Amino acid sequence: MSKDKNKNAILKKDYERVIIPTYAPANFVPKKALGSEVWDQNNKHYIDLGGGIAVNCLGHSNPDLLSVLHDQSKKIWHTSNFFINKPAIELAKSLTDSTFADKVFFSNSGSEANETAIKIARRFYFKTNIKKTEIVSFTNSFHGRSLLNIALGDSETFKEGFGPLPELILKAKFNDLSSVKEIISKNTAAIIIEPIQGESGIQPATKSFLKGLKEICNKHSVLLIFDEIQSGIGRTGSLYAYMKYGVIPDILTTAKGLGGGLPIGATLVTNKLAESLETGTHGSTFGGNPLVCAVANKVLEKVNNPELLEKIIRKEKILVNGLEKISSKYKCFSEIRSAGLWIGCDLKRVGEVKTLLDFCYKEGVIAVSAGSSTLRIAPALNIAEEEITTALERLEKAINKFES
Ligand SMILES: Cc1ncc(COP(=O)(O)O)c(C=O)c1O
Predict the structure, then answer these.
(1) 358 and 397, same domain (yes or no)
(2) DSSP sequence for 240-303
């Protein structure tokens, strides 16, 4: 196709002219999408195994979400936090009914949910007149791109040129309790951890590590924060990953899948912690927006359903079996890790995942990367088994080209 007829190429050029180049997007531009199917500007068809990086948990344009969105759009869109809105109350009720938490603060993204979590932890000790301000986070962690969250995360690249960053953040080694014991002190306010690290390629904490962390937290009056922004909303086959681990945090952050594609973040806490943020201490213009909360409440209702959650494990098996077969034929992956419909395949050809993704897109299958060497798969939780089969066939063709 000539460049003037290729609508994807025309838009990519426009993108490069007007958007700050923080991303390295694909060469095709999605035009419309339904369920796990996507079409680009030239009407080429794709099966979506990326799910907008674990966001579109019920697929694109889900009819039930659309119906709630339309209904709410005719009622009220935005009120400001001078007023109570019903969809926010309903969503908070659903979140607290289905988790350990008593109260919720709504924001617009995962990063903001984590900011709120750290503010609550520090403020809790401030209010109790106990000097505790240090935060412990982990190697290979990712918590977002705000200044606080890059300080919490473990990537030096993400920090470069952005300092000074928030202080008193210490790094312990993921899955290593002794490194936590070495680092914590009477000044430690909180430990923040992803129970399963997403951006570093679906790396699970061990059960004994999380149980040990909880014991250390209890012993030293340290708050345990679970960042479930990527692992939450059914991704692993339970509503939140902590439920499978049987370890209950003091604070949980959730975002991504919660809005089913609309922006929302939420910080979940117990009553004891909620009391530390009184009127005026924290806020957000859009957090708890009625339109988004109405949709998120529907997402939660549909995902927190044993039938859907059970099928996730079945689909995980189909995907992992297919990926293992491809790998034994082409010797392409050094390791495949999965946690529900969330899979990381480490490439033997280190650093070349972008090249593989381009082959995937050419074959009509969308996946994403984690780091530079891991193929990440995080499809809609309701993806059909036939769609998985088609996606695996297309992925095999892509791998064949990548390896030859
Ligand atoms: C574990 C985790 N925490 C925080 C974030 C940041 O979320 P957001 O990009 O919505 O700010 C992400 C996003 O990928 C994430 O995976």
Answers:
(1) yes
(2) SHHHHHT---SEEEE-GGGGBTB--EEEEE-HHHHTTS-TTS---SSTT-HHHHHHHHHHHHHH
